[in-house]
Give the backbone structure.
Amino acid sequence: MTSIQPGTSDAFLICKFGGSSVANPDNWSRIADHVSDRMASGQRVVIIVSALKGITDLLEAQTRVETRQPADAVCNEVRQRHHALLEKLGLATDLLDSELARLGELLDQDADPDDPAWQARIVGMGELLSSQLATACLQARGIAAERLDSRDILTSQANPRRSRRAEYLSAECRTTPDPQVQRRLSDLQPVVVMPGFVAANAAGETVLLGRGGSDTSATLIAALLGAEQVHIFSDVPGLFTADPRHIPAARLLKLVSYREAQELAAMGARALHPRALIPAADNGIELHLKQTSRPDIEGTRITPDAREHGAQVKAIVQRKGITLVSLEDIGMWQQVGFLADAFAVFRDMGLSVDQVSTSESNVTLTLDPGANVTDARTLDELERRLSRLCRVEILPDCATVSLVGLGIRTILHRLGPALEVFEQRRIYQVSQAANDLNLTFVVESRHADRLVQQLHQQVIPGGVGGDSIFGPTWEQLFRRDAEVKPARPWWSEQREELLERLSGHDSAYVYSLACVRAACTRLKSMQSVDRVLYSMKANSHPDILRTVVASGLGIECVSTAEAEHALNSVDGLDPSAMLLTPNFIPRSEYRKALELGMRLTIDNLHILEQWGSDFAGRELFLRLDPGSGLGHHKLVRTAGSHSKFGIPLSELDRVQRLADAHDIRIVGLHAHTGSGILHADNWHRSLETLGEAARQLGEVEVINLGGGLGVPDRSDGQPLDITALDGGLARLRQQLSQPVEIWIEPGRYVVSEAGVLLARVTQTKGKGDVRYIGVATGMNSLIRPALYGAWHEIVNLTRLDEAGDHVYNVVGPICETGDILGLDRLLPESREGDVMLIANTGAYGAAMASRYNLRDPARELVIS
Ligand code: LLP
């Protein structure tokens, strides 16, 4: 038993456990541990429990005629569910007998099934049962716990304007600190267990606090007791920057304000019920959302302090099933009463309007599915009535996509580039909430998922940790370890050989051809992809070209110099297996490519307008701009209005006319949105966009989805899911209007991991607090860190087994402050002559090297 005795008045902590938490027997030892820890730190703990998962639904079904079952059957099921849990917890199964008998009596009563007073008593039984079970369970674990019925201390306020139903089933309570209740609880055991969801009205009858009401019970009781904190435990660890079921890269929000939480909860975040926030905000109570089964995860804190962190987009959320109503009439301008007449129609039909925007000749409004029945009949009737006033357009299948965060208005200018994702997608309405908390776009439903994903990628900071607001991503928290357990990289297995190869040299890139082959095999395993081309700009080393061609890949190049180099390097390479996808090259180079017999992709109408005759009678591929780019850095996003690549979709008709005029057949469509993308969705969307364009053009035989397949920077990063990519492409392919071949042209994916840069330590230095390790080559060999802020793993290969002792900056010999290969790296103390290894440098390393400072870049070596 614990040291706190009844009668002392320690600070109260309120902990609420949700339905899936209490229903899972494995959670109870964790719950007991949490409670014991809290008691040990001198707190009195009040535990609020929901009904076991599924029980409230079962009981609620009894209150509707269409879903009602025989009373016996329901009672038995409720009994069985509780008995099964009691058994697993090692508790006596007769513990709940009297409560279960009461349920039986209630269900058998000859009550009016529509009577909300009776319904409240039935539906509230789930919490009465679970709170009894919880008390026994904690007592059995040696915790001094007792049960208190919430109806004894929570009383609802009557509100004559509300319906009788609402008064019983969605009752309102207001609470302020009450010393009498505080004394009463202080006289009980140090742990008090209470049922959530239920309260009493002034007449002492049972009322319910509405769906999700246990969260509200927790904050109401916290306010009564003057508690400073409420811990809300559920099956998710808190609020995320997007719905993690759709966006695995969604990050846990560590800190949000009440208003932001309110906005997120109202928009469907699962971890919290929005009503619960009102008592918390009114009384300055901090809420801490946590996951019962993973107490190690920090969770989300909802506190008044969150305001101090300034304006920032915290999340991207969407709601589907929105109906948009557009009222159009030039005559409405300055016409007194037009809006009143229009809104009267909605009122008369019982429809509640969500968002409204108006201009001189148009009023656009949305109907929220949560508050309205918007079936076809209702909408037809709405249209009929509104048509008497003006022109009406009703779009039933819309979605809202919202950026949520405090002070959105003050950061609109920073959102500019992110809003490019709306290019090519029609926005029906934009609204910025007066509370300055959200910026909402109404779009077609089918675009919503994609928009959320793109906005999330562009607006929410990437990376992990080191941030007071954004925590780890969902996939970092919940990926199955086996999926990402990093295999030991090839270079750690071949350490001796690498050190030997460097002897007598200062620096070298070393490529593992086995690693290149393995990547080719993974790519070739995709059933939905007919052809894989290697984008040789990533690394054009002759041995690599020979290896990829031998592995069955074709070659994609961006200059005729690349093409000639490939033809010279690889015996028997057939130019017709090569594709040239250049950008702004001179006319002479296209002519050269035609002479070589390569396939050509064009990405500008100038080529057809001015040089069309060069291509007469030929087949061409078109590079299209699908509207928005993705990639690891803004400089590698190659679509959208700020990128120089591609033909906009709106110019397809003109392309077709020009092609016809010159007897040119457009047989392939191409899109490359950017580089270093780790989500399969990117290529799925490209296939949808290009598929639609192919339908317009008619003769298309090939859809080339470009490259961009990313490789995680860090060994524990989540790799691109090739199986998911393949599966999605296969599914989408079936929906295309015509059979096409699917091609891809990755560069990085083939070679990045296969290459390492080795460089000897030349000097070390400490300056102020900063320690430097200088190596023999720098941005002249590897410009990616300087150019894109790219992160490459760095190890001391000579001392691979030694633990890091200090944090160092690893720098090269070039006369630029930006000549840094890695900042703040934990490394063992390194000595002159040691060999440092910079990993993942097979792609865009040597390929982008220069002789800046007249320093030759690292030489290239191969191990097969
Ligand atoms: N296709 C086209 C048309 C491209 O422009 C590119 C790359 C690729 C394919 C191959 O992309 P990959 O699969 O390698 O991501 N220097 C940057 C990357 C620039 C990529 C340029 N275009 C970096 O080091 O990250």
Observations:
- Residues 535, 538, 581, 636, 638, 672, 675-676, 706-709, 745-749, 784, 788, 843-844 surround LLP (CB under 6 Å).
- The chain has four domains: 12-235, 315-478, 513-750, 755-863.
- Confidence is low (pLDDT under 50) at residues 1-9.
- The two ends are 67 Å apart (CA to CA).
